[in-house]
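Hi everyone,

Forwarding the result from last night's run.
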Amino acid sequence: MRTDHYAFQRATRVASFGLLIQTIGIGLLLLVTGRWLHDTAIQFASYYVLYGGFVWLSLVVLFQQHKQERLEALEHDEFSREGFEAGSAFDRADDTRVAAKRLDRLYRWVMPAASLFLASLLGLTAWRMLSWLGALETDLDATGAFEMTDARGWMLAICLAGAALSFIFSRFVAGMAKQPVWQNLRAGAGYMVGNSLVLLAVAVGIICRFFDRDGVLYAIAYAIPIFMIFVALEIVLNSILLLYRPRIPGEAPRPAFDSRILSLFAAPDNLVRSINEAVNYQFGFDVTSSWGYQLLLRSFGRLVVFGFVVIVLLNMIVIVEPHEQAIRLNGGRLVDDAPHGSGPMFKWPWPFQSVEVYDVSRVREIRLTAQRLGRDELDLWEDELRSDVDFEPFVVVSPALDLTAAPLRDRKDDGIAKVDDEFALVDAEIFVQYRIKENGGLLDYLTFASDEFNRRDRLTMRERALKVLALREITRELSRMRLDDVLARERASMSNAIRTSVQNAYDARKAGVEVVAVNFRMLRPSGDAVTASVEIPLAHQARRQTIAMQRGKVVAELASVVGDPDVADDLLAAVEAYQAMEAADRDAPETIEARLALEQRLVEAGGELAQGLNFAESSRWTEQMQKRAQALEVIGERDTYRAAPAIYRERRTMQVLSGALASAWKYVIGIDPSRVQVDADLTMPESLLGLDLGSNESK
């Protein structure tokens, strides 16, 4: 093909037509339609399409300058044939090739600058789009800012029409670009096929909206700025490579915005040719010309049809495992009234019907509170509490032991003092483990809430609802318990009671889940009170120890006094009853009988009281028998006294004296005491042999 100004003029017209299609035919149509119908994804796609107009505008300028250069060269050739002498004003050839120099500057400076400007424009716009999408996920008030139009049919038609127009025009331009004179049209063809890919992706998202899959369109809206960043990075990389690529004389360099990857989609035959060449290179001979490869090419269509039929048939059969249950969906709606159990399940192929399989035996877990970071094997209340987010404390009743009464009297705000005296706060790390109920629980589980995720939320709508219900019941149960019960006494039974309460709340809402356990992985007083709260269990332990010691003393004392501690209360009641009867009438027969019965019970119980009673009784009998023996002795000696009273008295006197003077020292003095004065020291010296010869005292 001749490289003349007519060829470049035609390329200029094609580039101008591409500029109109890119900007007005598709770009402005998408932008206006997206803003009018309030569809964010369409507006995102319009930004990429509109920026493609800059590529076509650059190509229009480039080919127009090529046209001017060819006309200038034609004029220069005519001047040369007419015989202009070299001594004219245009002595040097460079002075007459103004358009050629302008074209050279266009390739050297304008095209690289335009490429970098386009890359910057794509990158900055993509960054703004991603930042805006990220702000939607953090700002709860802006959750409705991502708009999706209700005119899904119109938007689908516009996207498909734009994708088809872009692909057809890109194929046409790619065919022209096979000619060396028009090779720069590959940049426009590549960008145009990018339009087709973007609009086709948006069309797929709109089709998914017909099946209530709005999240697909939201994901595609995320993918559009990522695709723009990819194109911008390729342009920057091409610009860097152009600086080091050697220039071939007579060959026009490719602009940096000429995407090599998108050009493959614009001319897929080149991709197939490249694959054939790669296959031949790997095998070392021309495999593509062999009979086997040609047979494969002739049978390729039938093989594709056969494979498609097999895939459709396989898609109609679903195997449900023993631990699973499945449901059939038609456009997002349930088809059956009950879930399908284990075994083969048949359905219509997708997209007419789909099957969702759920593992009903798997135990799932929901984190209700903040989670500790860097947990050690030993957790102490005094240790610093580190968590991913701040713990929100739970309200419990203050402990029965009032340890804060004295400081509360010094507070001026009686309301705060009253609240502090009645309530306390605890930090807890709580997890709920659950699974899907059997016997129809799957349908309740699915209809309870959806599996959709909010932006930047790790929990689905169903898990959030289960979390809110569980937190409500846990807060209610803890608010009824005392601090010491929560931390120590009722710790074991508290989890089961809360699990039952949470299960009842789920059953009332028909959540379709069975609560397996409510695990308290951490439970401690909240805030600065944790240091003072450590002393509470120690005080309770000391109190219980003191009580146990005193009770042991009481039991030992009762066992010593009464004998059997179990009957001490009954004996005390019997003693009080007898004292009341004795105060009323001591000599009454009932009082005497009560005293005898009480003494009998005390003796049977044993102990010091029984010993005292037995000793008193034995002493009474001993004294009584002694007195009786003395009385009998007196009665026996009565006849002797009557026979000789004087002798009897003398004899008894001598018996008394012999008994009284047997151990006394006796001194016999032969002088009449009235005639002498005796001064004697009646003490006995110590015996040298250690014999007991008498006392040192005077006798």
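Residues 85-91, 402-413, 415-420, 693-699 have pLDDT under 50 and may be disordered.

Cheers,
N.
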